[in-house]
């Protein structure tokens, strides 16, 4: 028992001795801190050169910070001795004197409090004052370091907090203060009563319309129709101020976290961030983002419920609000690892933007209504007055405007693109109901176009201009955005083709049937008695009238820009090609028939030239010269009729003509049957077969016919002397064709 008491007395004596040494050391440290503070004040008010003053101030400040950190460590050990506890996580870091004795075993039971010893109790008040002084200095350093983003000063202050063993609570308090400051600015930005005060302060003339005594009344603080612009300006001024505060707080949080992550205690090697996490549920930056998102969501939701003005202003100005977020993200990007681009969006940015999702939802809802309203107006008159090119341009422009308003934000523009695609789907469905594809829509009977043909022309013009306007968006937006619209834009063009392709086929079919009538004329005996000498045949007159009908009554209804010119060129090419093939198989063909056929060619050329030339242009502009090889073939057909047999194999005389036409003409002059006669086809069937097969297949058909005729003539022992000459000519032309 006596041994135990002796051991206790020895332990109390050891701890008391250590306490007194530390207390005296703290006195010296606090005295030095006071001297450094006085020296700092003198250097700040001195008359030395500015550069020297700055250097001295910085040096004195650094020494003071180091001394405060040492004092904090001393205070922590003194408090530990007073409380009778030993914290292994915070071993003493002070410099010990050479004559200090080694400490006793720290595991000994310390039953006697040092406060019962008068020599120790005398220092308690001083220690408390020193602790208060060091804590105040530490807090001042922390706030100063955060405000100026001085990482060195911040590291020193955090070291002091670590030495005082208050680092976790300090960080928790700092984050709470920063979050509270942000919440106050957010709440103030959406406070309609404060907005009303700002408006009245800027424009006292409005006080008659709105009494300051009624600020708390929702009815009175809501702006009138005449004061909405002033209220909106005040709102956006407050929002800009809110984002500035958000930026400052966010940068400070990331600076604090960076210092915590990089700073270690030199003795224990404890990372300060790990120490701070003892009282935190997450990293400081994560806590800030979660709090920011929660505050934004709460106050936006409350403001929407409280004020129609705020609801309308924020939803209509959502793109402007997003731009403020973009500026916010750009400013903090230097300090944080956040990204917000078209390709990558950091989780933090997405989290914050989701907090204002109700604003986005209302904006998208209004965008949807706007597009649906445009489409509804386009189809409001139904089949009686279907939409045309102007309406197509308006629809494309409306969608382009909605996309353009959201193009700066990668997430918003995708959402608007989805809305636009849904609107296009509705538009396609309604346009499809107006399309008429029955027989009456493609039958050209009478002197004027039918109502069905007019309606189809209007719808086709509408679809074309809508497709054209929307197709231009591909070069203005990213692939990810345009891919949302791509299939719907393609469907617009497919519906347009469902209208125009059958139309062009019907036109070609009618013109081909008229041209096939030339086989009703006997070109082997004399000219057409109804046409008269030197005049064109009736079928050419009918062809001329039909071309004029298509130009003035049908094609003119289609407002499709330069596409109509390409249609005219396609029709002309088809007519020339079909006419030449029909003319090349006219058999028998006498001299007078050749003259008649030449006259018909002239009439056809004139009719096609008239069809090609736009009435608003000069006679030469847009004529047959623009067609190309088909026009050259038409001009080369006339001299072909009057060539000598030997000249038929010379490219010099047949330049510009398709080889198949030359072969046909050789067979026309000979007793050898033409391919269609050999197979029992009608002339129109044969010409259609040529159009559907390749040139080499047509050559093979002719070559097979020659071989068949030669075998048949030999078997029947016919006199083939005259025909052999034409067979030879045909073989030469075929060989030339195969070589080329």
Q: What percent strand?
A: under 5%
Backbone CA Rg: 48 Å
Overall structural domain count: 4
Number of distinct helices: 28
- State the order of secondary-structure elements, H for helix, E for strand: HHHHHHHHHHHHHHHHHHHHHHHHHHHH
Main sheet, how many strands, which sense, barrel?
A: none
- Subunit arrangement of the protein: single chain
Report the principal-axis shape. Answer: elongated
Question: Quick check: average pLDDT?
Answer: 84
User: Gap between N and C termini, in Å?
Assistant: 127 Å
Supply the helix-strand structural class: mainly alpha
DSSP strand count: 0
* Uncertain segments: 53-58, 88-110, 211-219, 615-621
Classify the helix fraction into a percent range.
over 70%
Biased composition (Basic and acidic residues): 32-52
Region (Disordered): 32-58
GO cellular component, one term: Golgi transport complex
Domain Conserved oligomeric Golgi complex subunit 5 helical: 114-329
Write a brief caption for the model.
By secondary structure, this protein is mainly α.
Structure notes:
With 740 residues, this protein is mostly helical. It folds into four domains: 2-87 and 111-161, no CATH class; 167-204 and 227-355, no CATH class; 360-490, no CATH class; 504-739, no CATH class. The chain is 71% helix and 0% strand. It contains 28 helices and no strands. It has helices at 2-45, 50-83, 118-148, 151-163, 167-189, 192-202, 218-221, 228-262, 272-276, 284-306, 308-316, 318-332, 347-354, 357-378, 389-406, 410-434, 451-471, 479-515, 538-554, 563-584, 591-612, 629-640, 651-654, 659-669, 675-679, 683-692, 695-716, 721-739. Helix 8 runs antiparallel to helix 10, helix 8 packs parallel to helix 12 (318-332) and helix 15 runs antiparallel to helix 16. The longest helix is centred in the first third of the chain and has 44 residues, at 2-45. Residues 32-58 are annotated as: Disordered. This is Conserved oligomeric Golgi complex subunit 5 helical domain-containing protein. Pfam families: COG5_C. Residues 114-329 form the Conserved oligomeric Golgi complex subunit 5 helical domain.
């Amino acid at each position: 028992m006596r041994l135990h008491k002796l051991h206790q007395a020895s332990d109390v004596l050891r701890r008391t001795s250590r306490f007194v040494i530390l207390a005296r050391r703290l006195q010296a440290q606090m005295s030095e801190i006071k001297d450094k503070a006085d020296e700092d004040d003198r250097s700040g008010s001195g008359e030395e050169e500015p550069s020297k003053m700055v250097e001295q101030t910085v040096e004195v400040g650094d020494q003071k910070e180091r001394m405060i950190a040492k004092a904090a460590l001393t205070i922590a050990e003194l408090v530990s001795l007073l409380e009778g506890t030993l914290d292994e996580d915070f071993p003493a870091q002070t410099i010990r004197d050479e004559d200090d004795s080694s400490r006793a075993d720290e595991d000994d039971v310390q039953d006697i409090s040092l406060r019962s010893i008068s020599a120790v109790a005398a220092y308690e008040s001083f220690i408390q004052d020193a602790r208060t002084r060091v804590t105040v200095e530490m807090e001042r350093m922390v706030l100063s370091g955060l405000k100026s983003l001085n990482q060195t000063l911040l590291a020193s202050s955090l070291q002091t907090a670590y030495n005082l063993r208050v680092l976790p609570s300090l960080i928790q308090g700092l984050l709470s203060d920063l979050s509270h400051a942000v919440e106050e600015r957010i709440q103030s930005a959406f406070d309609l009563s404060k907005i009303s005060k700002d408006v009245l302060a800027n424009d006292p003339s409005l006080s008659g319309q709105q009494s300051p005594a009624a600020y708390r009344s929702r009815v009175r603080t809501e702006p009138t129709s005449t004061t909405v612009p002033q209220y909106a300006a005040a709102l956006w001024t407050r929002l800009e101020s809110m984002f500035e505060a958000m930026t400052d707080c966010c940068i400070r949080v990331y600076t604090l976290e960076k210092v915590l992550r990089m700073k270690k205690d030199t003795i224990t090697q404890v990372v300060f961030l790990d120490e701070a996490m003892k009282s935190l549920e997450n990293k400081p930056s994560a806590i800030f983002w979660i709090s920011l998102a929660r505050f934004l969501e709460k106050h936006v939701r409350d403001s929407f419920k409280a004020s129609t003005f705020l609801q309308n202003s924020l939803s209509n100005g959502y793109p402007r609000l997003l731009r403020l977020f973009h500026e916010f993200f750009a400013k903090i990007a230097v300090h944080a690892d956040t990204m917000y681009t078209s390709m990558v969006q950091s989780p933090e940015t997405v989290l914050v933007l989701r907090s204002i999702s109700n604003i986005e939802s209302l904006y998208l809802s209004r965008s949807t209504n706007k597009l649906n309203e445009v489409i509804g107006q386009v189809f409001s008159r139904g089949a009686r007055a279907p939409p045309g090119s102007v309406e197509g341009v308006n629809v494309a422009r409306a969608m382009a405007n909605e996309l353009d308003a959201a193009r700066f934000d990668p997430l918003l523009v995708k959402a608007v693109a989805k809305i636009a695609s849904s609107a296009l789907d509705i538009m396609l469905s309604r346009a499809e109901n107006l399309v008429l594809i029955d027989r009456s829509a493609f039958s050209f009977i009478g002197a004027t176009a039918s109502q069905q043909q007019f309606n189809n022309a209007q719808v086709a013009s509408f679809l074309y201009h809508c497709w054209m306007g929307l197709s231009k968006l591909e070069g203005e937006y990213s692939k990810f955005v345009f891919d949302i619209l791509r299939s719907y834009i393609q469907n617009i063009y497919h519906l347009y083709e469902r209208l125009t392709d059958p139309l062009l086929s019907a036109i070609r079919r009618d013109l081909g049937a008229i041209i096939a009538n030339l086989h009703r004329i006997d070109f082997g005996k004399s000219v057409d008695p109804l046409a008269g000498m030197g005049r064109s045949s009736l079928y050419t007159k009918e062809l001329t009238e039909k071309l004029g009908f298509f130009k003035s009554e049908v094609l003119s209804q289609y407002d499709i820009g330069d596409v109509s010119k390409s249609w005219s060129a396609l029709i002309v090419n088809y007519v020339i090609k079909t006419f030449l093939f029909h003319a090349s198989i006219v058999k028998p063909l006498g001299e007078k028939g050749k003259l008649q056929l030449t006259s018909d060619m002239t009439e056809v050329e004139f009719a096609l030239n008239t069809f090609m030339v736009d009435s608003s242009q000069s006679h030469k502009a847009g004529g047959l010269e623009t067609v190309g090889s088909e026009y050259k073939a038409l001009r080369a057909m006339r001299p072909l009729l009057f060539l000598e047999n030997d000249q038929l194999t010379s490219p010099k005389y047949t330049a510009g003509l398709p080889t198949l036409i030359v072969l046909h003409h050789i067979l026309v002059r000979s007793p050898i049957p033409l391919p269609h006669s050999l197979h029992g086809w009608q002339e129109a069937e044969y010409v259609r077969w040529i159009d559907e097969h390749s040139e080499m297949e047509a050559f093979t058909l002719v070559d097979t016919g020659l071989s068949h005729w030669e075998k048949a003539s030999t078997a029947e022992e016919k006199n083939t002397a005259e025909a052999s000459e034409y067979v030879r000519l045909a073989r030469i032309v075929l060989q030339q064709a195969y070589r080329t």
